[in-house]
Write a structure and sequence with these properties.
Blueprint (H helix, E strand, L loop, with lengths): L1 E2 L17 E5 L3 H12 L3 E5 L14 E3 L1 H5 L4 E4 L13 H4 L3 E4 L13 H8 L4 E4 L6 H5 L8 E6 L2 H13 L3 E4 L6 H6 L9 H30 L12 H30 L8 H8 L1 H20 L5 H17 L7 H27 L2 H4 L4 H27 L16 H5 L1 H13 L2 H11 L6 E3 L5 E3 L10
Parallel strand pairs: 2-3, 2-5, 3-4, 5-6, 6-7, 8-9
Antiparallel strand pairs: 1-4, 7-8, 10-11
Helix pairs in contact: 8-9, 9-11, 9-15, 9-17, 11-13, 13-15
Length: 477
């Protein structure tokens, strides 16, 4: 037996109450970090290692033994080794019988093995109580005190007493345990850390499709057509002008798509006359991605603002203004002031500023650190009421941008309307349908449905309603 220490981690003060002894098999980064965190919480830590004499860099106060000796020191053993090295546990079957084994391992790929690592461990050591935990927490999170990292720990296991003891340890460490049920959930828990932005794929793919479509659309109208028609080479517009048309279009379209699934869900509930039926899978997934869609839209709005701010310093703009000024001075002419044009210009800018301000406000309130500080009614007011106001302002900003040219036949190029006209289709559709849904005659019915009323139900003698449908699945908006 040896005692090895290191001062690699900062010290933290916790409760002075002495806790139980916990054994950790494995002396890698995660095992050492978890041990250090537990020592701060006054747990006694013993390490199990295949080479106790060669192990180093262990936290101060931890003891190290062989696997067999360490297992006898505690009835809770954390297995901090990879699945490929589980074979040594077969030799410890008798020693580990009746003990709680906490599997914290992850794989390199999603669904790498037919069964989860925890289930495989239960097969190797049938007499032990297996609990899956800690695999979603990183060594860095433990070292940094979990102040700047995820605090949730998913826990699952077949033995409720063993699972409860592990959850008590999780709480003592200042983390939040989430009970995921039996060991059958272990495979899903092991897949969590391997997922790469699962809720962001749809927003990213949709954004890419929108950008590619409108890029080629604008290139055809603004670059290819002038070259074909009058041999003008204005390909330099690809750097600033074309992106500055694509970004606001993408922002407005994605913002409208944030609220479109809610409108569709309301229509489905009105059509079905009940809220106790599940939405289609595609609509469920769409609604779950609304936050990500909104944040991507906000990113495009930021790009539009930045690209707009650099317009005055562009060479083409400065060249055009200089030559126009020289031409007017030489010809002794001037442009007459137009009050209507001034109103359109100022309104366009004002609507854009207000819309962007509310856009940023929506993005800030969607952050967990902010949304956790407001109640549900306040959060719903910002995300719903102010969200629709943002959509109205941004749509009006685009409409005023068109001004007198909006839907003018002269603006058609090869029978193609301006890109902003196409961008208005989805936002205007969402706003029109939303306006219809908030009409008192429709909103009253929709509110009753969301409160549990069903169209196909019969009142009983006591005024209650009998549900005639045999399937009633929750499908709240």
């Amino acid at each position: 037996m040896e005692k090895t220490s290191t001062d690699a981690f900062p010290s933290t003060i916790y409760s002075s109450e002495k806790q139980e002894t916990v054994c950790i098999f494995g002396t890698g980064d995660f095992g050492r970090s978890l041990a250090f965190k537990m020592l701060q919480c006054n747990y006694s830590i013993v390490f199990g290692s295949r080479n106790p004499q060669k192990s180093s860099l262990l936290p101060h106060g931890a003891e190290i033994f062989s696997y067999s000796e360490a297992a006898q020191k505690s009835d809770i053993i954390i297995i901090a080794v990879h699945r490929e090295h589980y074979d040594f546990l077969k030799e410890l079957t008798e020693v580990l019988k009746g003990k709680i084994l906490v599997d914290i391992s992850n794989n390199l790929k999603i669904n790498q093995y037919p069964e989860s690592n925890a289930e495989y461990l239960a097969h190797l050591v049938p007499g032990a109580h297996i609990v899956k935990a800690f695999n979603t927490i990183s060594a860095w999170a433990l070292q940094s005190g979990t102040l700047d990292a995820n605090r949730q720990v998913f826990v699952c296991g077949n033995d409720s007493h063993a699972k409860q003891r592990v959850m008590d340890i999780v709480r003592t460490l200042g983390l939040t345990p989430l009970d995921q049920g039996s060991l059958m959930a272990a495979k899903e828990i092991e897949n969590y850390p391997l997922q790469l932005f699962p809720m962001w794929k749809f927003p990213f793919y949709l954004s890419a499709i929108l950008c590619v479509f409108f890029f080629f659309y604008c290139v055809i109208r603004d670059i290819i057509y002038p070259y074909v028609n009058s041999k003008k080479d204005i390909t330099f517009r690809l750097a600033i002008s074309i992106p500055n048309r694509i970004f606001p279009i993408a922002a407005l379209t994605l913002l409208a798509l944030v609220y479109l699934p809610g409108v569709i869900a309301a229509i489905l509930q009105l059509y079905r006359g009940t809220k106790y039926r599940r939405f289609p899978d595609w609509l469920d997934h769409w609604m779950l991605c609304r936050k990500q869609l909104g944040l991507v839209a906000l990113g495009f709005a930021f790009l539009h603002v930045l690209y707009t701010l650099v317009i005055p310093i562009r060479y083409y703009v400065r060249w055009t203004l200089k030559n126009r000024t020289i031409t007017q001075v030489t010809a002794k002419t001037q442009d007459l002031f137009s009050t209507s044009t001034a109103w359109l210009s100022d309104s366009y800018v004002a609507l854009g500023i207000l819309g962007f301000f509310l856009f940023v406000l929506l993005g800030i309130t969607s952050l967990p650190s902010v949304s956790n500080m407001v109640n549900w009614r306040e959060f719903r007011f910002v995300q719903s009421k102010l969200g629709y106001l943002t959509l109205i302002l941004c749509t009006a900003h685009t409409l005023v941008y068109g001004g007198k040219r909006f839907l003018s036949p002269a603006s058609l190029i090869w029978y193609l309307p301006s890109a902003y006209v196409i961008a208005l289709i989805i936002p205007c559709t969402v706003l029109v349908i939303k306006f219809i849904l908030i009409l008192p005659c429709i909103d009253k019915t929709l509110t009753r449905i969301r409160q549990g009323w069903e169209r196909n139900s019969k009142p009983t003698s006591d005024g209650q309603y009998l549900k005639q449908s045999s399937i009633h699945l929750d499908s709240q908006l």
